Amino acid sequence: MPLTSTMMSLRPSLRSPLKTRSPLKTARLPARRLACSALALDPESTMHAIRIAVAVPTTYALVSINEYITHRWYQHEELNTYASVRKFAQTFLDRPKLPGGGHVEHHAETLDDMSLRTDAKWLASEPCAVLEGKTYRGTAFEYDIVAMMIAQMFVTCPWVLCGVLGLNFAEASAFIVSATVLHGLIWNALHPAMHGLPNVPIAEGLPSSWLKGLRGSAYFNWLYANHQGHHVLSGRCNYNVCAPLVDHVLGTYVPESEWGPKAKTSNGDESRPQYDATEYARALAAASTVKVPVGAN
Question: How far is CA 63 from CA 10, 155, 186, 251, 285, in A?
């Protein structure tokens, strides 16, 4: 047999087999083409999905803005720096200034370690009387506060969610309500017990127990330290408790490395539990048993 014929007969056996696609890869190709075709044929659905995705961080930013405005200018009464606001309060409320709902008094009774004052001088003071009878002493999101926050969000947020992002009102409402409720749940799990006050039951407000498991987590420790700095520096920084974004944007955020050395604790080197929901009640009971020396008044 000629050499060329021999080589030709051997060639098929020497050839590498033809590369074939695996059944899985072959099946993926039509699916990818179908998905791409769907996106190309329905750009409106694609844009709607993008709007929904963008609405998540946008809503967080809106919550942060609303919390900042409420905490700084209303609760800390900084609106009263404007003469027109003081005139409004005098004319329509018969008050020298617009009240902040007892928040300034809350600061007056809070020590740097986040516990509350129960000394005789404080308990007999006029600011303390403002908080008298309030179980949570202005620290909790009870249902009336939740309703006010939702109303405020409905005034400020649809302009962005509907007007800018193009969500319909039902979608915007879902974002507003869910974000406000989540904010309140975080607040109630964190804030009252942080100050030694009771956990909020579902009968009175958004329940502390639902997110209680986050206490001690890196996330809650970060929020705790952020808010402690707010108290240590007399309420002039770190305004937001649950959504600190705006503090970072506006330059009112102060890290623990700066406020920590300025903190004064009432218990020396002893560490105070971060969340002791019965601390204030115990301290108040102990204070009531202290005998005042004759002639101390």
Answer: 76, 12, 13, 18, 38
Q: Is the pLDDT of residue 163 over 80?
A: yes
Is 205 within 8 Å of 188 (Cβ atoms)?
yes
198, 277 Cβ separation under 8 angstroms: yes
Residues 6+ apart with CB under 8 A from 230: 237, 238, 239, 241
Do 276 and 193 form a contact (C-beta atoms < 8 A)? Answer: yes
Q: Is the dihedral of CA 233, 234, 235, 236 positive or negative?
A: negative
Burial profile 257-283: b = 16 or more Cβ within 10 angstroms, e = fewer: eebeeebeeeeeeeeeeebbbebbeeb
**Does 41 have pLDDT greater than 60?**
no
Give the Cα-Cα-Cα angle 143, 149, 153 (nearest 5 degrees): 145
Coil/strand/helix, residue 209: helix
CB neighbour class for 225 (10 Å; exposed up to 12, middle 13-18, buried from 19): middle
Span 54-104, pLDDT tens digits: 999 999 999 999 999 999 999 999 999 999 999 999 999 899 999 888 999
Largest CA distance in the chain: 133
Distance CA 149, CA 24 (A): 52
Three-state secondary structure call for residue 142: strand
pTM of the full structure: 0.82
The answer to whether 76 and 255 have CB atoms below 8 angstroms apart is no
Is residue 222 classed as helix, strand or coil in its secondary structure?
helix
Q: Are 61 and 164 in contact (CB under 8 A)?
A: no
Among 41-55, 116-130, 133-147, 173-187, name the one with the lowest average pLDDT.
41-55
The per-residue pLDDT of the chain, averaged, comes to 88
